Amino acid sequence: MASKSFSKFFAYLYRFLLRRLRSAHATHIRFQKWPPLPDKLSGQTVVCHMEGGLLRSSSIFPYFMLVALEAGGSFRALLLLLLCPVIACLGHEIRLRIMVVVCFCGLRKEKFKLGRTVLPKFFLEDVGMEGFEILRRSQRKVCVSAMPTVMVEGFLREYLEVEVAVGRELKVFGGYYTGLMEKDNVAAKVLLGREKAREADVIGFGGYPNSVHHPLFSHCKEVYLVSEADKRKWRVLPRTEYPKPLIFHDGRIAFRPTPISTLCMFMWIPLAFLLAITRAAIFIFLPYIFSVPLLCFMGMHSRVTTSPRSHQATRRQLYISNHRTLLDPLYISAALGHHVTATTYSVSRLSEMLSPIRTVRLTRNRDKDKGLMKKLLDEGSLVVCPEGTTCREPYLIRFSPLFAEVSEDVVPVALESRVSMFYGTSTSKLKFLDPLCFLMNPFPRYVVEFMEKVSTGWIGGNKCSSCEIANHLQGEIGKLLGFECTSFTRRDKYLMLASNDGSI
User: Can you tell me where the transmembrane regions are (predicted)?
Assistant: First the structure.
């Protein structure tokens, strides 16, 4: 009886607050409880509050921490973490302004690319299936956010196909962000472009109570609100439901940086640095018979699978593999039990000098590279990554067919790596830190699977070209790993993430 009375009291309080908000905010708006009927969304413009109605978590702290870590550096991130207990006690607007000042003050505007290279991954992982369904059923999608436009616009437009993305604008002086925001003054014409706003066709959707005071909701016929309790029951948006697949993303941080997880990261970094140096020294100076079990004892987990025909490989064998990190050839070499030569593209000079195996830089000249690879294969086993660059997500980049013109047979190798704290790949100028960042993870994991040796001139008894065998092996490796094959190239990746062709 007591529980029923308690629930009735909260139901009454909820209806009372909605009535007060309705009368105080705009007399013509009807605030209703989520979810709306599907028929009501057909042919309508939906104004969705990103934090309140789209993301499962209403906390925006992790996204500002990502900006601080990836664009501002460790000092900004540490300052933001130290201020976390203070800003948690403040109002939403003051809390937002403090985080913007800490994260953006002094950043160069033209170099800020996190909104389309780093943040989309974390936004997509936090999108609720139920909230996304409401957005998908609408005819026209408008998303509003309390976060700066430079943080959310790339994600909303490119990955959720939102037509209008409205965020807070940042003040700029001399090409640098000042850390101050423009006044929140959004006109109704933003909703419908240059057309006159037809309020009868506009439905709002957000979270209670943070979304109800947004200016754009004053132009909505109805506003549906979802509570935090309901959002906790939302399902994660599956990768297969993404309007646009997330293939490339950048940044070092591999986890969602909540205050607790960020504190753990800063406490782990001193030990992680020493651990990474020790792991690297073991890799470089000890033979594989000792280094492999010792590294396993130090948390580096790996699993090797071989096929019967892969054991028939000679000491002058060509191995091709998908590319996950710069350590791919090292893991293949350790699995074979002997040193191999690896071809590279734009690996830093420091990484080449510290590598325990021989690395040879390709020139991107087809004839020269072909002759060089044949020469290296005559000297011993050779590892080639036909993708030419790494890919973190379960996708394979287009394979270059050059390897098929070098050897009559190859041994394909399927690789998969997993990290929990730091990514061991990047498109920045600090690529020499890639191996170190991978080794700083508490328990990095690798799976190495040797496939059967195949002829480079035949597929199923039929003669084939080098392009056909490259596409065939890409498909076979993708099928084994459960990865999807794409036609993207190394150039596409670097143009998307770094606005260059990938040369160092």
Answer: 253-274, 280-300
